[in-house]
Design goal:
It is a single chain. By secondary structure, this protein is of the alpha/beta class. It folds into five domains: 7-105, de novo design (two linked rop proteins), CATH 1.20.1440; 111-192 and 542-576, Orthogonal Bundle (Fumarate Reductase Iron-sulfur Protein, Chain B, domain 2); 203-298 and 448-513, FAD/NAD(P)-binding domain, CATH 3.50.50.60; 301-445, FAD/NAD(P)-binding domain (3-Layer(bba) Sandwich), CATH 3.50.50; 590-711, no CATH class. A five-stranded parallel sheet has the order 3-2-1-4-15, with helices on both faces. Strands 16, 17, 18, 19 and 20 form a five-stranded mixed sheet that branches. The protein has a four-stranded parallel sheet with strand order 8-7-6-13, with helices on one face. The termini are far apart. Bound molecules: flavin-adenine dinucleotide (FAD). The site of flavin-adenine dinucleotide has 40 residues, from α12, α13, α16, α17 and α19.
């Protein structure tokens, strides 16, 4: 079985084949298989309860026991094996109505949720925000991510890259909606911790107060464990505090979300470094039962060029940003050169400007197109005055007698590499030039600082010097020792560390209970089912993602005030309304097919359904052609497309967006409500005028019959 196949869907298919093949000639076995199939379909369609799996098991056991000369024994055995091997997946279909592969169509999570490393139920919280239910939205988010405000400001937002709305115009601004809701819930005193489970005996020590360690701390504390976080620095936050500058993520945001953990009883021991201040053995002796290594990746890579270690003016980016975060705001130099093309380089460049550098040049080996930094961050850096020099390769530090002068570089050209999409920069001979500078900040990546942990006996490391773990349970090679975040993946993102922290909390809980660790990663859980907002097709199509208001440029160059000022409330509510509700509409395309191929109407222009045959999407077009027959709704597997008669109208809607509506007609004779005029016309055309008319006026079937019968009465 591959990871991409849903065992529930696979078993249904297999059983259908067995039933059709005639291999089950024993009547009892045949009936049992039919019953199992019905129960499995309940599981696949989200109708199953706790009794379903035991009932399937019992029937399968009966089949296996039955001494019939057919395939019953084999089939029963196969079903039992499936239930055993994929117990968790069956359970997730039943408990959370979730099929991670999407094969059980009604239970497929939306792409935004599937792609989120923490599996947050995006459509549910976005819908809640759309309704002004910010505190409830935060409750939904915190079931998978304890830091919605932090992530609302700095998440790399993989959800937005997968957002289906992006195929129509631009993705929903999911990240900023989250920041708005978190800020609102906190300022209105509605940002609350959920209730904790009763206290448990065991205690966990977490090493590192970054997002990975703190996320695990939060979920472990909720499960009732005593949790202590030891942290080498004087404050909690890890790279979100020590790396990400304050103009992107104000300190208050971190402090307020960390305070929520302290409210839950999580203890913090600051200025305590594992390896120098305390050892794992000390902590074991103190009585901790499990450990989580969440030490991040804080050691900068060096350029490996001559002169790099000879001048104090050569700073490493993470060290420089850490000093600034801890309050040392000395300007690195009048002329600063930063080397690198990622977010860390951009942060170092923009921070240098704010500290008072007169010129900041960012030198990168490739072109703008290849820069890994966030596009918006690059644009903001340029607006603030950071100069970009592309195709520039550092060759040596230039200086004499301890006096730093700058950086000798070579021009580069990009050449294609075999087996890679990425172009390789190659130095151009004789193109040397010197960039004068007072300070040089290489920002070319980080690795795990292994000091104090590398020699833990029995702890396995990867070739990249990251901690080797099982990526589902986050267990290391040492029993009772788990690891998460950048220390495992190498430098990555906040949301990845948070997702891993939550998995580790689950892994540690299972370890304490002696429950085997899961084999497959957890499926994202649907946290609610919120009704769709009623909007007109015009509203849905014309709404545009709002521009983010930014701090004025002079203040941006001189202060660490937050640059992105946040959306106004009306923009937030409207923006949430742009969501296409992919938790309900799975874009299977059945509605489009039926309307076009079976009805011959072709009223649904939904190009975003189909990557391979892109046509434009326009919900407004439907009203021009649709006859309100309801074939699309009748064939929609998830109830996304609906047709309803209300207030004298027939309304067709897709996830709340009204695609078409028309008044119902009345029978000219008895006044009974009938189909809309357009539909009746369509039927009359298709039946070549057989539809009931009296005096050229439409009448209902009953009146039509009566009128026809009267015309047939024998003459007196
Ligand atoms: C400048 C910069 C900007 C970034 N911007 C973004 C961004 O915009 N969006 C995004 O998603 N990601 C961003 N990242 C990446 C993100 O910050 C990290 O991926 C994330 O913080 C990793 O979390 P973590 O918990 O694994 O480790 P960290 O956040 O690094 O936390 C590890 C903690 O462990 C402590 N520690 C280390 N060793 C020990 C020890 N021996 N004993 C005790 N404590 C120890 C450290 O002091 C630190 O507090 C950025 C990173 C940098 C450097």
């Amino acid at each position: 079985m591959t990871e991409k196949t849903c065992p529930v869907a696979e078993l249904i298919q297999k059983l259908e084949q067995t039933l059709a093949s005639g291999q089950l000639h024993d009547a009892k076995n045949y009936r049992r298989s039919e019953e199992i199939l019905a129960l499995l379909n309940d599981v696949a369609w989200g109708r199953a309860g706790r009794e379903h799996v035991p009932a399937i098991r019992q029937l399968a056991e009966e089949m296996r026991r039955e001494d019939a000369a057919d395939a019953g024994e084999k089939t029963g055995g196969h079903i039992l094996n499936c239930l055993e091997e994929a117990a968790e997946i069956f359970q997730s279909h039943i408990d959370t109505h979730n099929c991670a592969t999407g094969e059980c169509v009604r239970l497929a999570p939306a792409p935004c949720q599937m792609t989120c490393p923490a599996g947050i139920d995006v459509p549910t919280y976005v819908s809640l925000i759309g309704e002004g239910r910010d505190a409830e939205a935060i409750e939904v988010i915190r079931q998978d991510n304890p830091f919605p405000w932090v992530c609302g400001l700095v998440c790399t937002r993989p959800c937005e890259f997968m957002c289906v709305r992006g195929r129509i115009d631009t993705p929903v601004s999911i990240k900023f909606l989250k920041a708005f809701a978190a800020e609102r819930a906190l300022s209105w005193g509605q940002y609350k911790n959920p209730p904790k489970a009763p206290d448990k005996e065991q205690s966990v020590c977490i090493i590192g107060a970054g997002p990975g360690g703190m996320s695990a701390a939060y979920y472990l504390a909720l499960k009732g464990y005593r949790v202590r976080v030891i942290e080498a620095q004087p404050n909690a936050g890890g790279m979100i505090l020590l790396g990400i500058p304050r103009y992107r993520l104000p300190r208050e945001v971190i402090d307020r979300e960390v305070a929520m953990l302290q409210d839950l009883g999580v203890e913090f021991a600051f200025n305590t470094r594992l390896g120098s201040d305390v050892t794992l053995d000390d902590l074991r002796q103190e009585g901790f039962d499990a450990f989580l290594l969440a030490i991040g990746a804080h050691k900068a890579y060096t350029l490996g060029i001559p002169g790099e270690n000879d001048f104090p003016q050569v700073l490493d980016a993470v060290g420089f940003l850490r000093e600034v975060a801890l309050g040392n705001r000395a300007v690195p130099g009048k002329k600063v050169v930063v080397i690198g093309g990622g977010n860390v380089a951009i942060d170092a460049a923009r921070t240098s400007l704010r500290l008072g550098a007169e010129s900041v040049v960012l030198a990168y080996r490739r072109t703008r197109h290849e820069m890994p930094a966030d596009e918006e961050e690059v644009e903001q850096a340029e607006e603030e005055g950071v100069e970009m020099r592309f195709l520039t390769i550092p060759e040596a530090i230039v200086g004499q007698d301890g006096h730093f002068e700058g950086l000798r570089c070579l021009r580069a050209e990009l050449v294609a590499q075999e087996g890679s999409d990425r172009m390789r920069p190659v130095p151009v001979k004789g193109s040397e030039f010197v960039m004068e500078a007072d300070a040089l900040i290489p920002a070319i990546g980080q690795q795990v600082d292994t000091a104090g942990v590398k020699d833990l006996p029995g702890l396995d490391w990867t070739r990249r010097s990251t901690i080797h773990t099982n990526m589902v349970s986050m267990e290391t090679s040492l029993p009772g020792v788990f690891a998460v975040g950048d220390a495992v993946t190498g430098p990555a993102t906040v949301i990845e560390a948070i997702g891993a922290g939550k998995r580790a909390a689950e892994g540690i809980d299972r370890y304490f209970h002696g429950i085997p660790q899961p084999k497959l990663p957890p499926v994202p859980v649907r946290r609610g089912r919120i009704d769709c907002k009623r909007l007109t097709a015009n509203q849905k199509m014309t709404a545009r993602r709002p521009e983010m208001p930014l701090l004025n440029i002079d203040r941006r160059r001189t202060t660490f005030q937050q640059v992105e000022l946040g959306y106004a409330e009306t923009d937030v509510r409207d923006e949430a309304g742009r969501c296409l509700r992919c938790d309900i509409c799975l874009r299977c395309g059945k509605c489009v097919e039926i309307c076009r191929d079976k009805m011959g109407v072709n009223a649904l222009e939904m190009g975003y359904f189909d990557f391979d045959h892109p046509v434009e999407t326009d919900f407004r077009m439907t009203a021009e052609r649709c006859i309100l027959c309801g074939a699309c709704a009748a064939n929609c597997p998830t109830g996304a497309m609906r047709i309803e008669d209300c207030d004298g109208e027939r309304v067709l809607s897709l996830c709340g967006t009204v695609l078409n509506h028309e008044a119902l007609t009345e029978c000219a004779l008895c006044g009974k409500q009938m189909e809309p005029f357009r539909y009746l016309e369509y039927v009359r055309k298709r039946t070549r005028g057989i539809g009931p008319l009296v005096d050229n006026r439409p009448v209902c079937d009953a009146c039509g019959r009566t009128a026809a019968a009267r015309t047939m009465q024998p003459e007196q």
